[in-house]
């Protein structure tokens, strides 16, 4: 079956621009997670959805970051006024309730 | 604060040698424990996990890990390294069945011919 997919695979933008990153979870997975992986580091948690609602957004670094999951399936991570420090690989994972998280290939974001 | 420490950012072993990647966590409550592998330009793949029960956990590709509560450790081992094992390995913990995963900083494993 299809795994977690993320689009685009690569995104280059200029400082100050707005970007949207998309995650398609595994069909039927109600839990969806976003992580950010900076170069040479392990992934860091950003936000967790259970269904349509954000159950834990404690990892969002500031109010420039926002994520939605309006129909409980696809999720979009939105970054406003991008900064060079936002450059990283953004990972999405999904799971059935309480089960193993399966990760997508990530979106590599480069802010110039 | 809850954290995961991986000793050694880079480990190099000869092909056929024992692989040992170290992981310690900080918690008074036993967490769920994981090892993930990341090959270049690929996503994270689950190697193995410990939730409850037997403390020696076997995973894919011949890897295994042992949960030692007294040492708050979950070291990853493989008896004989293969060239295809070269990758980045991440130890991780989760403190409830439906919560975020906390990752270590990773250990890059290199295999010498």
Q: Structural class of chain A, please?
A: mainly beta
**Alpha carbon gap, first and last residue of chain A:** 37 Å
Cα Rg of chain A:
13 Å
From the N-terminal CA to the C-terminal CA of chain B, the straight-line distance is 41 Å
Contiguous runs where pLDDT drops below 50 for at least 5 residues of chain A: none
- Using only C-alpha atoms, the radius of gyration of chain B works out to 13 Å
What structural class should be given to the helix and strand makeup of chain B? mainly beta
Number of helices of chain A: 0
Number of strands of chain B: 11
Q: What is the quaternary state of this protein?
A: heterodimer
Tertiary shape of chain B: globular
Q: State the helical fraction of chain A.
A: under 10%
Average the pLDDT over all residues of chain A and give the rounded result.
94
Q: Which term fits the overall shape of chain A?
A: globular
Largest binding interface between chains: A-B, 26 and 20 residues
Quote the average pLDDT of chain B: 92
Order of helices and strands of chain B: EEEEEEEEEEE
The total strand number of chain A stands at: 11
Number of helices of chain B: 0
Strand content of chain B: over 45%
Strand content of chain A: over 45%
Provide an overview of this structure:
The complex is a heterodimer of chains A (112) and B (113). Chain A has 112 residues and is mostly beta strands. Chain A has strands at 5-7, 10-13, 19-24, 31-37, 44-50, 53-56, 65-68, 75-79, 88-95, 102-103, 107-111. In chain A, the strands form 2 sheets. In chain A, strands 2, 4, 5, 6, 9, 10 and 11 form a 7-stranded mixed sheet that branches. In chain A, strands 1-3-8-7 form a 4-stranded antiparallel sheet, with no helix packed on it. Chain B has 113 residues and is mostly beta strands. The radius of gyration of chain B is 13 Å and the shape is globular. The termini of chain B are far apart. The model of chain B has no long low-confidence stretch (mean pLDDT 92). At the A-B interface, strand 4, strand 5 and strand 10 of A face strand 5 and strand 10 of B.
């Amino acid at each position: 079956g299809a795994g977690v997919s993320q689009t685009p695979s690569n995104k280059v933008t200029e400082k100050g621009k707005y970007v949207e990153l998309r995650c398609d979870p595994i069909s039927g997975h109600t839990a969806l997670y976003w992580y950010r992986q900076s170069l040479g580091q392990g992934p860091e948690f950003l936000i967790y959805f259970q269904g349509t609602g954000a159950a834990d957004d404690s990892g969002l670094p500031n109010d420039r970051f926002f994520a939605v999951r309006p129909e409980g399936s696809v999720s979009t991570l939105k970054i406003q006024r991008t900064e060079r420090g936002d450059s990283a690989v953004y990972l999405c994972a999904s799971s059935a309730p309480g089960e193993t998280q399966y990760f997508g290939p990530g979106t590599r974001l480069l802010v110039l | 604060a809850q954290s995961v420490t991986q000793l050694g950012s880079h480990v190099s072993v000869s092909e056929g040698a024992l692989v040992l990647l170290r992981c310690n966590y900080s918690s008074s409550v036993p967490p769920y424990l994981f090892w993930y592998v990341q090959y270049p330009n690929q996503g994270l793949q689950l190697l193995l996990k410990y939730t409850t029960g037997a403390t020696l956990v076997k995973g894919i590709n011949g890897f295994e890990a042992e949960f030692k509560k007294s040492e708050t450790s979950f070291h990853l081992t493989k008896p004989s390294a293969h060239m295809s094992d070269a990758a980045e390995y991440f130890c991780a913990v989760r403190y409830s069945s439906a919560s975020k995963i906390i990752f270590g900083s990773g250990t890059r494993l290199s295999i010498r011919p």
